[in-house]
Specification:
heterodimer; A: 441 residues; mainly alpha; Fumarate Reductase Iron-sulfur Protein, Chain B, domain 2; 2 domains; 16 helices; 58% helix; B: 263 residues; alpha/beta; Rossmann fold; 5-stranded parallel beta sheet; 4-stranded parallel beta sheet; 11 helices; 13% strand
Chain lengths: 441, 263
């Protein structure tokens, strides 16, 4: 029975990682439901963007308070992973503080993990206060009711508990080292947890071991659980921010894509040699491509990746001119709706052996209303504000295209404007022959 | 009507067998909107002063299709774009200057993949070039002591990262340039973009232009300058909503320059 803990640990680890892998597969399958889009260009610029925006957090610190706090939690997360590696190896091999032969380097590492853990606790408390006491506007918008609010707080609680467990484990370990307990050789520096030792002062060696082991197990099981919580949470951004910034838009923000399917038709219309009555060529006989998007499958896969990456921080919405003036449009809601609909489509596929069976619902109307879409000024403030290169505007435009080109459902004034352009080459009903009158007025 | 403007069409250039230095893309607003026509005139006065050999398309010009594209009508956009490209390529146009950031954006970024490749400049960029090359000089202290705040048009600033040219021009007049809290990359939209100019806003508790003008008025300006005919309309309506039309004027950068030179 000597190896029982190692075996339990290995089973927990395999289960945790296995379940996570299953979810990653589901995630990839759902993202691939999107249309193909060529993002193979400018590789070096893309890597740079990823390094600068995701790794370097440059767009986070645009808002200094939230930005700096976020950097702390982020650095804490990355660095403490080194400790998690040691914990995993200890768990599998039945060793204790496997990396301790590193000596003073090890002391420095453990010491800095502790300082970071404390900073993370402080940051998490500040975040909680911002969400629940100060109630910052962008965290209490309508789309944040229910699960998104719970999710936001849940993540903070989990991080808080994990850090407390980490420090408790170290405090008990430190005390055991002082007592010269067997197995607990002197290793590590404990600049923070040493102050927790008085809380454990009256405990016997066996109680201390119980505390240390309990904290150790809960900490690592907590991390495995958190890993699997990601898929069900906005917290997925900790992974997807990297590919998302890599695939982010490189063109000037004002440049919208030109629909190739439209180009083909327009060229045909303008070709004087084209026979208007010609039967479509054999290869063109397929169903004509749908213009614009009414559901998630009509979007491209980068847009779907965007949706899963969104962490609902609401910087986009707080910068949106429409939202600031009380309109229903919220760019964050566009992303959340896209993700929720995509998840729904994924669930339908799971229930039908991987085949999508129409549920009579779609992204348009059932999630996003035309009123929201028509409120957009296409100003790109949301795109600019996003710390992880999400482009809500491209989804809005794609859905407008569907409304206008497939359904002719533009607001009346816009239909008037468009028929003016068709008839006289200007959005107003003026004669094209009067275009130069301004010179002599 | 004041003095005669010297404006030649591409057809006239063709007839003479000549090529202009630039094509001035007037745009639908610059051609038809009463307020925007004044901007076209101010810009032409500056071009005339600098002796620029420019052409316009005149009655051959047609909407770029930009607003149709933002509204979702990709079909109409590409129809307009292809017609314009056929015309521009037929005239072998190399360089285009426009006072409208929306035309600027679409000509510069969205026309190339449809076969229209031109060097496209916003009029503030071109005016700066004329000054830098010594072809246009801005003198006098007419605007000294005046506070001017510049409203960044979304499709010039955020969309295409042109922030400095309009500001440099404004400081040439010796005016005092004051910045709004939200400017350059984080500038707030005037409310006209995305085809909003042509429709009533959705239900809300305020109009975007009123909010933007509020931000502009917080800088306590004499003049709100901008570089877009649509922003101009929105900001002008905005100061009316704030009942400040007696103390604050909305002008295009080209108008500020032309006025400063008594043109």
């Amino acid at each position: 029975m000597e190896y029982l803990p190692n075996i339990i640990f290995a089973v927990a680890l395999i289960a945790g990682i296995g379940f996570f892998t299953r979810n990653v597969k589901k995630l990839t399958r759902n993202i691939k439901l999107g249309k193909d889009v060529d993002v193979s260009d400018n590789k070096s610029q893309r890597w740079k963007n990823m390094a600068r925006i995701a790794l370097g957090q440059t767009k986070m610190v645009v808002r200094p308070v939230a930005g700096i706090m976020h950097v702390i939690v982020y650095v804490g997360f990355i660095i403490i992973n080194i400790e998690v590696l040691e914990i995993i190896l200890d768990g599998l091999l039945g060793t204790h503080r496997l990396f301790s032969p590193l000596g003073s380097v090890y002391d420095f590492l453990i010491g800095s993990f502790e300082v970071l853990a404390l900073l993370v606790i402080v940051a998490v408390i500040v975040f909680w206060i911002r969400r629940n006491i100060i109630r910052i506007q962008r965290f209490i918008k309508p789309e944040m009711k229910g699960w998104p609010k719970t999710d936001g707080n849940m993540i903070l609680y989990i991080e808080f508990v994990l850090m407390i467990l980490f420090l408790t484990m170290n405090a008990a370990d430190f005390q055991l080292q002082q007592l010269g307990a067997e197995h607990y050789h002197e290793a590590g520096a404990f600049p923070i947890s040493q102050f927790m030792v008085p809380l454990l002062d009256n405990l016997s060696e066996s109680s201390l071991i119980l505390v240390e082991r309990t904290a150790w197990w809960l900490h690592i099981l907590g991390i495995l659980a958190f890993l699997n919580y990601l898929y069900y949470s906005k917290h997925l951004h900790i992974l997807l921010a990297f590919p998302n910034t890599y695939y982010g838009k490189l063109k000037p923000q004002g440049q919208f894509n030109n629909l190739e399917s439209v180009t083909k038709e327009v060229k045909l219309m303008m070709d004087p040699d084209a026979d208007p009555y010609a039967a479509p060529a054999e290869e063109d006989a397929a169903e004509p491509e749908k213009f614009g998007a009414s559901d998630v499958m009509d979007l491209n896969w980068v847009q779907l990746l965007n949706a899963y990456t969104c962490t609902e921080c609401g910087r986009c919405t707080s910068e949106c001119p429409a939202n600031q003036t009380g309109k229903k449009l919220s760019p964050r809601k566009i992303m959340m709706d896209t993700r929720d609909r995509l998840e729904e489509v994924g669930k339908i596929m799971d229930a039908n052996n991987g085949e999508f069976v129409s549920d009579g619902k779609q992204l348009l109307n059932d999630y996003i209303t035309p009123e929201e879409l028509w409120a957009c000024t296409t100003c790109n403030a949301c795109v600019q504000a996003c710390p992880v290169s999400i482009d809500p505007l491209s989804i809005i435009v794609e859905m407008r295209r569907y409304l206008v080109m497939e359904q002719s459902a533009a607001p009346t004034e816009l239909n008037n404007m468009m028929s003016n352009i068709e008839n006289n080459g200007a959005p107003w009903p003026y004669n094209q022959m009067d275009r130069l009158n301004w010179v002599n007025e | 009507m004041s003095e005669q403007l010297k404006v030649k069409t591409m057809q006239e250039f063709m007839a003479e067998g000549k090529q202009p230095e630039i094509l001035f893309w007037v745009g639908s607003a610059g051609s038809f909107d009463d307020r925007a026509k004044k901007i076209s005139r101010a810009f032409v006065k500056l071009l005339n002063k600098a002796n620029v050999d420019f052409a316009v398309l005149g009655t051959e010009e047609s909407s770029t299709g930009d607003v149709a594209k933002r509204a979702g009508n990709e079909f109409l956009f590409q129809m307009q774009a292809m017609m314009n490209i056929e015309l521009l390529n037929g005239y072998e146009i190399k360089r285009i200057v426009t006072c409208d950031p929306h035309s600027f954006n679409t000509l510069k970024n969205e026309y190339p993949s449809l076969g229209g490749n031109y060097d496209v400049l916003h009029h503030t960029q071109y005016l700066k070039e004329l000054i830098d090359n010594g072809r246009l000089t801005i003198t006098g202290d007419g605007y000294k002591g005046k506070r001017i705040t510049f409203h960044d048009p979304c499709y010039l600033g955020r969309a295409n990262s042109v922030f400095d040219a309009p500001r440099e021009l404004l400081t040439k007049t010796n005016a005092e340039l004051v910045e709004m809290k939200r400017h350059k990359k984080t500038a707030l939209c005037c409310g006209a973009g995305g085809a909003q100019m042509f429709k009533e806003p959705e239900k809300g508790d305020m109009d975007v232009n009123v909010l933007r003008t509020k931000g502009a008025l917080e800088t306590n300006p004499n003049i709100i300058a901008t570089g877009c005919p649509y922003c101009n309309t929105m900001m002008t309506d905005g100061i009316k909503a704030h009942e400040k039309e007696d103390s604050v004027t909305v002008l295009d950068v080209a108008e500020v320059l032309a006025n400063s030179q008594g043109l």
